[in-house]
Design goal:
CATH architecture: Orthogonal Bundle
Number of domains: 1
Order of helices and strands: HHHEEH
Shape: globular
Number of helices: 4
Largest sheet: 2 strands, antiparallel
Structural class: alpha+beta
CATH topology: Arc Repressor Mutant, subunit A
């Protein structure tokens, strides 16, 4: 397994774990990753949003447009699909991730 695959799988799993707690927007997911890792990990926009898109294309998450907190512009809010636990288990089984 290439290092890039491991990193993508780990980020995907972190995103799915966070979304299992409830819908969240990209900035909130990034903040939660930093909090969970005690500032040890930083998911930049350049890695977070492509990972969210990849998960959406694969059917692991779904997104809906919602009003931003200040109601100025809509924001895409990803959430796990109704059977979200299955996608998390599938990612854990295939990633060799230490986050089991």
């Amino acid at each position: 397994m290439a290092k890039t695959d491991l990193l993508q799988g780990t980020l995907d799993l972190l995103i799915l774990r966070i979304l299992a707690l409830g819908s969240n927007h990209g900035w909130g997911i990034s903040t939660r990753i930093r909090q969970m890792s005690k500032d040890g990990l930083n998911a930049s926009q350049g890695s977070l949003y492509p990972a969210l898109h990849r998960l959406e294309v694969n059917g692991d998450v779904r997104s809906e447009m919602t009003a931003s907190e200040n109601n100025r512009r809509p924001a895409s809010t990803p959430s796990p699909p109704p059977a979200g636990g299955a996608s998390t288990q599938r990612h854990e089984a295939g990633s060799g991730s230490p986050f089991r």
